[in-house]
Amino acid sequence: MPQPERTKPRKLPRQERSRITVEAILIATTRILIEFGYESTNTNKIAELAGVSIGSLYQYFPSKEAIIATLIGCHADSMICMIEAKLLDKQEAPLEVALRELVKVCISAHTINPKLHKVLIEQVPHVGQLEKITDVEKRVKALIRSYLENKRNKIQPQNLDLAAFMLAHSLESLIHAAACEPDFIVNEEFEQELTAVLLRYLLKYA
Question: Residues 72, 30: contact at Cβ < 8 Å?
């Protein structure tokens, strides 16, 4: 298990100049992770690419693990904001429409930067951010369950907790696998097929 003090920022940026410095560090870390991978990423490389001194980097982050943990947190927050906005907007939409939009927004959330997403998810156990990812999953499942509650008389599954679990994890697993597959294109055909899979699971008369 990572030591908590090594995976948390030392302080939060409060002034504009500090925010610019932290943003540069996060952008540099993203580029290095994607190009070289976790093992080859270190604070000296990050500071050099970010254009800041190593001392400035250590003012905010005690280690590369703390920077990566911050990246995971930002990435998770961005994903959940996208998904929540779309699902809340479609709570009254017909099943086919809502599922299609759910698939679209989940694909968008996973494929903004698929290489970074893959690296960050791989490092979750090492930098103590499992709770953050779990929170995203819980919030997505809660939104799906809320929608299914309103459609209970039109769907086959009546255990809505299980149905929400099945939908959320089917989406996550298939989209993540597709986005990380170098020879696979996440396109409209994939979107249609994934939507059809979810519909076949839910519809009373398939």
Answer: no
Q: Which residues contact 170 (CB under 8 A, 6 or more apart)?
A: 197, 198, 201
Using DSSP's 3-state secondary structure scheme, residue 159 falls into: coil
DSSP 5: G
The CATH number of residue 190's host domain is 1.10.357
As for how many domains the chain has, the answer is 2
- Taking the CA atoms of residue 188, residue 189, residue 192 and residue 193 in that order, the dihedral angle to the nearest 10 degrees is -150
Write down how long the chain is: 206
Q: Decide if 123 contacts 72 (C-beta within 8 A).
A: yes
Whole-angstrom CA distances from 142 to 71, 151, 164, 174 are 24, 15, 7, 20
The string of pLDDT tens digits covering residues 142-195 is 989 988 998 998 899 999 999 999 999 898 888 877 777 756 667 888 889 999
Instruction: Compute the C-alpha angle 188/189/191, nearest 5°.
Output: 60
For tokens 């699902």, the residue is 87
Angle at 195 between CA 194 and CA 198, to 5 degrees: 90
pTM: 0.70
Cβ(119)–Cβ(38) under 8 Å? yes
Q: Cα dist. 172→62, 79, 136, 194 in Å? A: 32, 12, 11, 11
Question: What range defines the domain where residue 111 resides?
Answer: 75-202
Do 20 and 89 fall into the same domain? no
